[in-house]
Amino acid sequence: MNITDVRVRKMTKESKMKAVVSITIDDEFVIHDIKVVEGEKGLFIAMPSRKAADGEYRDIAHPINSQTRNSIQEIVLAAYEKALLEPDPE
Q: How far apart are CA 46 and CA 66, in angstroms?
């Protein structure tokens, strides 16, 4: 699996959610609405989720193992850090 494109939409208002990201895998599959969140231990990603009938949030799409999650997180956070250096469109 190769992440072939990362698109970062920075949040303009101050909150714990810093950006919303879309990734493309192997130029064939897209996952939208990955969130970059500021937590107590630093930045992390939250996969797209939906609120279930019981009030709990459940991931719609997510990595099966921690190695894949870490790989996606590293790529997404690197793209976010790069986006921070770019000027905001006016």
A: 13
Q: How far apart are CA 2 and CA 5, in angstroms?
A: 9
Q: What digits encode the pLDDT tens for the residues 37-65?
A: 999 999 999 999 999 999 999 999 999 99
Long-range CB contacts for residues 71-75, cutoff 8 Å, separation at least 24: 72/3, 72/23, 72/34, 72/45, 73/44, 73/45, 75/3, 75/6, 75/23
The 3-state DSSP class for residue 85 equals helix
* pTM of the predicted model as reported, rounded to 2 decimal places: 0.88
